[in-house]
Design brief:
Bound molecules: zinc ion
Strand content: 15-25%
Mean pLDDT: 82
CATH topology of the largest domain: GMP Synthetase, Chain A, domain 3
Distance between the termini: 52 Å
Structural class: alpha/beta
Length: 183
Amino acid sequence: MMTGTLTGTLTETGTGQTMSVDADLAAIRAIAEAVPDPELVVVTVGDLGIVRDIRTGDGTVEIDVTPTYSACPATLAIELEIETAVNSAGYAAVVRRVLSPAWTTDWITPEGRTKLKEAGIAPPIARSDDDSGAVQYFSQPVVPCPRCDSHDTARLSAFGATACKAQYQCASCHEPFDYFKCL
Ligand SMILES: [Zn+2]
C-alpha cells in the first residue's frame, strides 16, 4: 500500500473510511457556507463571502474565515457556529481568523444581495456601481428603497438595529428600512 501522500485521499478517519480530499473539501465548504449569519439571519456566511479557504491540516480541516466588521460582536459566534456545524458532520474543524485582506461589502455574493433586499434591507452600494470614479462612501449615499426601488430616500439614523446598518426611510412608500453600510 502506498503511503506518505495526501494526494487524492484524506488520511483515514476514525471510522476507517478513506475519502477523496476534493469531495470532502467541497462538502465541508458547503456545510460551512450554509451557516446563517447570527445577526442578519437571512444571509449565510457563504452569502457574505467570509469563508476564504478550506484545506486539510494535520488530521484536521482548517477553515479560514475573515470577520465582516472587525468590531462586530458576532465574529466569535460565527466562528463557533462554523466549527460546530463542520464538527457535527464528522470532520475535526479548526477555524482560523484571517484579518488580511480585510473583508469588504463587495465580497457579498449577488445571491446574498438579493436575499438582503428581499428581507427589506438595502444591500451595500457596490463599488462597481459607482461609475463616477469618485468614492464617497463616507458621505451619505443615495440608497434605493429595497421595497419600491425609489431613490427618494433619507437617512434617519447612522445606526440601525446593528452597528453595520443605518436606518433610512423611503419618501415614496414611506417605509423605514435598514441599509447595510458599505465597507
Ligand atoms: Zn419605498
